[in-house]
Amino acid sequence: KRLFQKSHLLFGWIEPIFVGFEDCFHIDILPQISYSVHMKRAHYHAKYDLKYHLVLVTKYRKRCITQEMLTRLEEIIRSVCKKWDVEVLEFSGEADHIHLLISAHPSMELSKFINNLKTVSSRMIRKEYKEHLAKFYWKPYFWTRAYFIATVGGAPLEVIKQYIQSQERPEK
Question: pLDDT category, 45, cuts 50, 70, 90?
Fold first, then answer.
């Protein structure tokens, strides 16, 4: 049962087909490539599934994060994300950086969210682990100013490029 024919407004380059669940679309990009997208979230007339890989690194790449601090960082970050209506899908890290896999709303300003996340987590960690961090930093530092963020999931870029290139252009 088709939910709608080719939707140039919602998806433009894909053909969604209803598969029995309100929150799932099966998508055929090319005859040989297909995948399912689970639409967990909706907002007015838009369905979305945006996932980001975020990496935060300690200042000067100092290896100052302990196992106990990593556990506390996860609690703090999950709390901040909940306030921003951001879902934490995965969290892990090492002594000098952390990795997050998050799902967020399309209208959320990522840079503001990340700056808030870094500010709150830095202040709380520096307050709670002041003596430990004094060995690494003489100023109130924790995270570097930079961060890495990338979108993840969906069809491979080459498949989308091939599909777009295969579109029939209008004659006039």
Answer: confident
CB 132 within 8 A of CB 84: no
Whole-angstrom distance, CA of residue 151 vs CA of residue 110: 12
Looking at residue 84, the DSSP 8-state letter turns out to be T
Tokens read off for 44: 């007015």
pLDDT at 71: 95
Beta strands in the chain (DSSP E): 15-18, 24-30, 33-38, 41-43, 46-48, 50-58, 87-93, 97-104, 143-152
Confidence of residue 74 (pLDDT cuts 50, 70, 90): very high
Facing residues of 97 across strands? 57
Q: How far apart are CA 104 and CA 97, in angstroms?
A: 21
Provide the 10 A C-beta neighbour count for residue 81. 19
Between the two ends of the chain, the Cα-to-Cα distance in Å is: 34
- Token pair for 144: 């570097």
CA distance 88 to 64: 23
Count the alpha carbons within 13 Å of 148 in the hemisphere toward its beta carbon.
10
Window from 27-31, 93-97, 103-107, 108-112 with minimum mean pLDDT: 27-31
